[in-house]
Design brief:
With 310 residues, this protein is an all-alpha fold. It has helices at 2-25, 32-57, 65-81, 86-109, 115-134, 146-154, 162-180, 182-192, 194-199, 204-230, 241-251, 263-282, 288-309; strands spanning 139-140, 156-157, 160-161, 232-233.
């Protein structure tokens, strides 16, 4: 029990130490404007990471989240450009993201393909499809109901950026599903021991497919928010986002072996990644070093996870 509690507290302690160190190095860090900026920047990763949490809890991985974000983003912009109503466009894009996740899940469950390979193929195909669809050029989203759409990414409510509220809503729903629904218990059971879950009567294939649908749905959600924020859909959007999402989940304490982890830990992990990026920017450190820093953080988190399991 003590080891379990220590594992849950480790990400929080890391967040506190990192925040204290950054505030000591840069007085601009703790300003209200910068904190809101960090949370807004973190919101995209946190939404994607929430879906990634479902996948990793089952012992899987999803490398396609960045490509799903980009593809759904350009489809969203294209629908708005053809005067499709805003609500209908959002609904169609969310369904598209979930459908992509279902197809990936079926390849894994019915095709018996390893998640790493299946999602790598999805990542490659969708990135290519995005570039073909856009001819490598951005698609403007500043058309049709542009003001209402832009509010999702650029607007403020009570002085707080709207993407932060959307992030909180997504994480709250994900938390409830994992902690208080039968599906959430099935996800943990599948990650804990797939064979035992199958023998106990759980439809493991359907559960596994469903978590990839959740990941696709939330990646599409992040794509909508990002497109609204930029007022355009970039064909190269989301590149490397899978690394940030995996880092947030693993740093937040979710085991790569599956069966153990929490959405609140994922939020803490996303904040750690967001603060790290912000700190490097405040100190004018080259963006190239950010990838190195993320790699080191993931390595440390995995080593600590293995030590906890031992």
């Amino acid at each position: 029990m003590n080891r379990a509690i220590a594992g849950r507290l480790r990400p929080v302690i890391g967040l506190v130490i990192l925040s204290a160190a950054v505030s000591a190095l840069s007085p601009r860090f703790l300003t209200t404007g910068n904190i809101l900026n960090v949370l807004r920047q973190t919101s995209i990763n946190a939404v994607i990471a929430a879906g990634m949490t479902f996948v990793i809890l089952t012992g899987g991985i999803d490398l396609s989240v960045g490509s799903v974000l980009a593809y759904c983003g350009v489809i969203m912009a294209a629908l708005l450009a053809t005067q499709v109503p805003l609500v209908a466009s959002i609904a169609l894009v969310l369904l598209l993201g979930a459908a992509i996740g279902v197809l990936t899940g079926l390849v894994i469950t019915k095709g018996k393909v390893q998640p790493f390979i299946a999602t790598f193929v999805s990542m490659t195909l969708l990135r290519g499809a995005t570039l073909v669809f856009t001819d490598g050029k951005p698609i403007s989203a500043d058309v049709g109901p542009a003001e209402a759409f832009a509010y999702l990414g650029q607007g403020y409510a009570f002085g707080v950026p709207v993407p932060i509220f959307l992030m909180i809503a997504v994480l709250a729903i994900a938390y409830y599903v994992l902690r208080h629904t039968r599906f959430g218990r099935y996800v943990y059971a599948l990650g804990g021991n797939e064979e035992a879950a199958r023998l106990s009567g759980l439809r493991t294939g359907m559960i596994k497919t469903s978590v990839y649908a959740v990941s696709g749905l939330l990646s599409a959600t992040a794509g909508i928010i990002l497109t609204a924020r930029l007022s355009s859909a970039q064909p190269t959007a989301g590149a490397g986002y899978e690394l940030d999402a995996i880092a947030a989940v693993v740093v937040g304490g979710t085991s790569l072996a599956g069966g153990s982890g929490r959405i609140l830990g994922t939020l803490v992990g996303a904040l750690i990644i967001g603060i790290l990026n912000n700190a490097l920017n405040l100190m004018n450190v080259s963006s190239y070093y950010q990838m190195i820093a993320k790699g080191v953080i993931i390595l440390i988190a995995v080593l600590l996870d293995r030590k906890t399991e031992a």
